[in-house]
Write a structure and sequence with these properties.
Helix content is about 65%, strand content about 5%. By secondary structure, it is mainly alpha-helical. It is elongated and about 60 Å long.
C-alpha cells in the first residue's frame, strides 16, 4: 500500500484547479456571470475528480490484490469489475466520519459560498484564493481516501481476515497513529484514520 501514484494524480488535479480558479479573478463581476462561471468550474473539477479517483482506486486495488498473491492480469481483470463509476460515486455520496460531510454535498456548499463571497468581497482575489485552498484540501483528502478504500476492498476480495496498522513516520503522524502502530485488527473493525492527510499504511496479515 502506498500513495505514490495518488500523489502524481493529485499534483495534476491541483494544477488544473489552480488554472480554473484563476479564471474567476478575471470575471466581470455581475451576479449572473459569477454564479454561472463558478458553477461551471466546480462541475468541471468534480468530474475531473471522479475520473482521477477511479484511476487512483484502480491502481490501489490492483496493488492490494497483487500483494495478496494475485497475478497482475488477474488483479486488473478483477479491478475492472469492481472499481466502477458506481463504486466511486458511492464513496463520494457517503457521509464521512473524518470530514463530517459527503464529498458531493460539500462541493455544492463550497460552490455557493464561493460565489457569494466573491460577489460580496472588496478583495475578490483573496476570496478566490481562499476558496481554492479549501477546495484543494477536500479534493486531496478524497484522493487519499480512494487509496485507502480501494486497498481495503482489495484485501476483503482477496479473503484477508486481519490487517496490521503501520504508522507513517512523517510530519503528520499523531499520537493516535503512534499508539496504533503495529496493532492487528480484524478487517471489518479497522478504526478510521484519526486526522486529515493521515498517511498510515494498512497491511494484510496472512
Amino acid at each position: 500500500m502506498n500513495y505514490d501514484y495518488a500523489d502524481k494524480v493529485i499534483r495534476d488535479m491541483n494544477k488544473r484547479n489552480l488554472r480554473a480558479f484563476d479564471r474567476i479573478k478575471t470575471l466581470k463581476f455581475d451576479e449572473l456571470n459569477v454564479f454561472r462561471t463558478i458553477k461551471a468550474i466546480y462541475e468541471t473539477s468534480i468530474q475531473l475528480a471522479k475520473k482521477r479517483y477511479k484511476q487512483i482506486a484502480e491502481d490501489a486495488y490492483i496493488e492490494a490484490l497483487i500483494l495478496c498473491g494475485f497475478s497482475r492480469e488477474e488483479a486488473e481483470e478483477k479491478a475492472e469489475d469492481t472499481i466502477t463509476d458506481d463504486w466511486i460515486l458511492d464513496m463520494l455520496e457517503e457521509y464521512n466520519a473524518l470530514t463530517l460531510y459527503s464529498f458531493l454535498t460539500e462541493a455544492e456548499r463550497k460552490e455557493q459560498r464561493t460565489a457569494e463571497a466573491v460577489l460580496a468581497a472588496q478583495d475578490k482575489a483573496f476570496e478566490v484564493d481562499k476558496a481554492l485552498r479549501y477546495w484543494t484540501l477536500q479534493v486531496v483528502q478524497y484522493a487519499e481516501f480512494s487509496v485507502l478504500e480501494a486497498t481495503m476492498q482489495g484485501y476483503r476480495d482477496a479473503g484477508v481476515k486481519k490487517v496490521r496498522w503501520e504508522a507513517e513516520n512523517d510530519e503528520r503522524v499523531c499520537s493516535v497513529c503512534i499508539k496504533r502502530n503495529g496493532k492487528v485488527y480484524p478487517i471489518d473493525k479497522v478504526p478510521p484514520i484519526p486526522h486529515w492527510r493521515c498517511r498510515c499504511l494498512i497491511w494484510p496479515v496472512q
